[in-house]
Amino acid sequence: MANSPPPVAWLEILAGYLILLFMAGVGLRLLYKMYQNEIDLAQLLCEPKGKNDCAASMSRFQLLIFTFVITLSLFLIIVGNKPLAFPPIPSEILMLLGISASTYAVGKGIAASNGGGATAVAQAHGHADAAQASAAGAKGNADVAQSAAATAQSALTAAQKAAADAQKAAADAAAAVPPRPPQV
Amino acid sequence: MDLLSRLAVIECGGLLLSFFGMVLWKIAVGEISLAGLLTTKEPGGGSTFSPARLQLLIFTVVVAGNYLHAVLATPRPQALPTLPNSVIAVLGGSHAVYLGGKALSTFIQPLLRNPR
Questions:
Q1: A95 contacts B88 by C-beta, under 8 angstroms
Q2: Residue ranges of E strands in chain A
Q3: Any chain A CB within 8 A of the CB of B98?
Q4: pTM score, two decimals?
Q5: Contact state of B99 with A76 under an 8 Å Cβ cutoff
Q6: CA–CA dist B16, B31 (Å, integer)
Q7: Distance (Å, rounded) from C-alpha A99 to C-alpha A62?
Q8: Are strands B39-41 and B47-49 parallel, antiparallel or unpaired?
Q9: Is A58's CB within 8 Å of B1's CB?
Q10: Does A22 touch chain B (CB under 8 A)?
Q11: Closest CA relative to residue B99, chosen from A17, A117, A44, A59
Q12: CA Rg, chain B, in Å?
């Protein structure tokens, strides 16, 4: 009984085992969901480009790499310490992670701003130019149609005049022919 | 308490390696796509090769690899290895170039293509 830990120590050990069990359950559940694609990692490095398209983002990729490397290093150093102890983190590493995370955040901001309207302005200018060209084309087409209508009108007038002339000639011809004598 | 510590190390190591392994495996089989990692989008909708992204990738891989090597090469490190300030400065510059290129292609190029 002299070597057995005091009750508070037993409580600590019990809490430790419970925390380990909880972490294992959560971790394994997350891994299973990732494996089954219920947690979809396909968009992990993806940044929207255009309406429905997206492409891998360098800012996300570098953040992933630095996170992996620093985490793995920290774990190796904790495990290497006897007894296990959390090592101090140098300010240079904090700066490195800060630069990496800031780049991710700023890159995300730039992508989300979509050019602060610059792209939209350029597209609007393009649409305005296209509309102007279309209006000029439509005006040309209207001129051509107007000229064709005038031509058709003059052709119709000429045809009417020719028909009237033909009708008059037929009447003159009919008047010039003498009546046929009655047959016996 | 010794057993608890050992179990904690095994569990944390296993979970850490499993998470990293899952991400790396999905990258390797193409479920996490790396397409377009080194290209930047054009205002017209196309995409072109981006040197700013390439230099950031190179600096990232070199610095991360160097750091991991420093950790693994030290027999029993008591603390995380530090990085020289020059390396931090170079990496910061590399990130600044990348962000500058990204801002240029997003904010300036659309206006230069249609200067009205």
A1: yes
A2: 46-48, 54-56
A3: yes
A4: 0.71
A5: no
A6: 20
A7: 10
A8: antiparallel
A9: no
A10: no
A11: A59
A12: 21
Handedness of CA A15, A18, A24, A25 (dihedral sign): negative
Q: Which residue has the tokens 């991360």?
A: B64
pLDDT tens digits along B3-30: 888 999 999 999 999 999 999 999 999 9
Please report the pLDDT score of residue B32 as a whole number: 92
- The pLDDT score that the predictor gives to residue A98 is 95
Q: Which long-range contacts (CB under 8 A, 24 or more apart) does B6-10 make?
A: B7/A17, B7/A20, B8/A16, B8/A20, B8/A84, B9/A79, B9/A84
B61-101 pLDDT, tens digit per residue, is 999 999 999 999 887 778 889 999 999 999 999 999 999 98
The interface residues of chain B toward chain A in range 23-62, judged by CB-CB distance below 8 A, are 23, 26, 31-39, 41, 43, 45, 47, 53, 56-57, 60-61
Flag if B57 and A58 touch (Cβ within 8 Å). Answer: yes
Find how far residue B66's CA is from the centre of its chain.
13
Tokens describing residue A99: 């630069």
For residues B9 and A79, is the Cβ–Cβ distance under 8 A? Answer: yes
The Cα A68–Cα A63 span in angstroms is 9
The answer to whether residue A61 neighbours chain B at the CB level (below 8 Å) is yes
Asked whether B27 and B34 are in contact (CB, 8 A), the reply is yes
Identify from A58, A102, A132 which residue to disrupt to test chain B contact, counting B C-beta atoms within 10 A and taking the largest count: A58
Determine the Cα–Cα distance for residues B12 and B14; give it in Å rounded to an integer: 5
ipTM: 0.89
Distance CA B87, CA B94 (A): 10
| CA–CA gap between residue A138 and residue B54 (Å, rounded) | 49
Instruction: Say which residues have a Cβ less than 8 Å from residue A55's Cβ, sequence separation at least 6.
Output: A46, A47, A49, B35, B36, B37, B39, B41, B47
Instruction: Please tell me what DSSP assigns to residue A81.
Output: S
